[in-house]
Write a structure and sequence with these properties.
It is a single chain. With 386 residues, the chain is an alpha/beta fold. The protein folds into 2 domains: 7-130 and 332-345, Rossmann fold (3-Layer(aba) Sandwich), CATH 3.40.50.720; 132-321 and 355-376, Dihydrodipicolinate Reductase, domain 2, CATH 3.30.360.10. It has helices at 19-27, 43-53, 62-66, 83-92, 107-120, 134-144, 165-170, 184-187, 193-210, 324-341, 349-368, and strands at 7-12, 33-39, 57-59, 73-76, 96-100, 124-127, 151-158, 214-222, 234-242, 248-253, 266-272, 276-280, 296-300, 303-307, 372-373. The structure holds nicotinamide-adenine-dinucleotide. Nicotinamide-adenine-dinucleotide (NAD) is lined by residues 12-13, 15-20, 39-41, 62, 77-80, 82, 100-101, 127, 129, 176, 178, 180, 197.
Length: 386
């Protein structure tokens, strides 16, 4: 079979503060991809970036980019309120789509995206980096090898994220505080914008480990948050039941000083009938100066067995277990392989819709103060109308 030429990718939202720098690194690091164009709204900024990264083409108009026959794939790292319209237009133009999470603002938007991709015979990948995060994949493999027996509970914890010095400088000490992320309507999260952005990650992770969908969620809301979310009400705890009735899960969020606890960032404990796994996710692990930990540890029969991964350096986070850019490289590598070899995606539009729905159910549960069946979320339900 003839070797497939690299996929020509256009990065849309290229001047973004958070996801774009990561995608810029990843797109230039995989031989199966060629970063061919950059698109955003500020032409001067784009030209500077194109010069810095030696990218041939820039577009300030998305419709003009879509008319470029030299582009195979659009990589949408734009805010969520643009995901549906940009995905649908790209699919209609015959371009494959990689769109960042959250997939859309409502189930019906996500459904239209899936339909457009099917009609255009293009691939639609939702960039769910936690699903492809190295330590998460390693833990999933251990589960599949039977190391912990039958899964009974998934416990997730989100503590403070610490940026490294160069990332802090780049973000001017303001973290991921970009305008749309804390806006009820632009984020799509209504009173709870941050969970709209983060929810798909935690449900994708729970499904990865349990191999079962989310049936019911119950969220606790109260005053807790950092930055702009402090003026809103945060969701600090979510519990859920999986479709597989033997499994349930929870997510707990509390921002404290790193010195107040042993670990930082995201981590999961997976409790099974034979053993337990502790897995560190995004920005998770030990803070500098604290006792170091392995990305994955298996507890069984009174023993603790550590598992290491090959690479552990990261551009963004301070912790000994950060694999942020690498998680995105894993997603892109999988996506490129699927497109080139016409293989199915492990995380596709339907997966994005599933995790979006569980996230919307979480917000609805927080607003209404009662448990919500995920299947009860109406296709046209928007969180900001609450
Ligand atoms: N997977 C992850 O770990 C991860 C991490 C961060 C962000 N994200 C996701 O990536 C997406 C972007 O988030 P961000 O924090 O990087 O946002 P950002 O605000 O930093 O960047 C968005 C960029 O899109 C550009 N843009 C807006 N309208 C445009 C248009 N019409 N045409 C072209 N460009 C346009 C903006 O000018 C900006 O440069 C979100 O969906 C977010 O949830 C994912």
């Amino acid at each position: 079979m003839a070797e497939h030429p690299p996929l020509k990718v256009a990065l849309v939202g290229a001047l973004g503060k958070v996801a774009a720098p990561c995608h810029l690194n990843v797109l230039r690091s995989l031989p199966s991809l060629e970063l061919s164009a950059l698109c955003d709204v500020d032409e001067a900024g784009l030209r500077q970036l194109a010069h810095q990264y030696e990218v041939g083409q820039v577009y300030t108009r998305y419709d003009e980019l879509l008319a470029d026959p030299g582009i195979d794939v659009v990589d949408l790292v734009v805010p969520p309120f643009l995901h549906a319209e940009m995905t649908i237009a790209a699919a209609q133009a015959g371009k494959h789509v990689y769109v960042e999470k959250p997939m859309a603002l409502s189930r019906s938007q996500a459904q239209q995206m899936i339909q457009a991709a099917t009609a255009g015979a293009v691939y639609l990948m939702v960039g769910e980096s936690y699903f492809f995060h190295g330590p998460h994949r390693l833990a999933r493999d251990l589960i599949q090898e039977g190391e912990v027996g039958e899964i009974r509970q998934i416990r997730q914890y989100k503590q403070a994220w610490l940026f490294n010095e160069s990332e802090n400088r780049r973000l001017q000490g303001r973290g991921h505080d970009v305008a749309w992320r804390f806006d009820p309507r632009l984020s799509g999260g209504g009173q709870f914008p941050w969970i709209m952005d983060h929810g798909p990650h935690l449900f994708a992770t729970a499904r990865l480990f349990s191999s079962s969908g989310i049936r019911t969620v119950a969220a606790l809301q109260r005053e807790h948050g950092v930055g702009r979310e402090q003026q809103l009400r945060g969701i600090t705890a979510i519990s859920w039941a999986h479709v597989d009735d033997a499994v349930d899960g929870m997510w707990l969020h509390c921002e404290t000083m790193p010195a107040a606890g042993p670990w930082i960032g995201f981590r999961t404990e997976i409790l099974g009938t034979k053993g337990t796994l502790r897995v560190f996710g995004e920005g998770g692990g030990a803070a500098p100066g604290f006792p170091q930990v392995a990305p994955v540890t298996l507890y069984r029969q009174g023993n603790a067995r550590d598992f290491q991964l090959d690479a552990s350096c990261d551009r963004s986070w301070v912790s000994n277990n950060s694999y942020y850019d690498e998680a995105h490289r894993n997603v892109w590598s999988h996506f490129a392989d699927a497109v080139m070899n016409e293989r199915p995606l492990e995380y596709n539009g339907a997966s994005g819709l599933e995790d979006l729905t569980a996230t919307l159910a979480t917000i609805q549960s927080a607003v209404r103060g009662c448990a919500t069946e995920v299947s009860s979320i109406a296709d046209d339900w928007h969180a900001w109308e609450t």
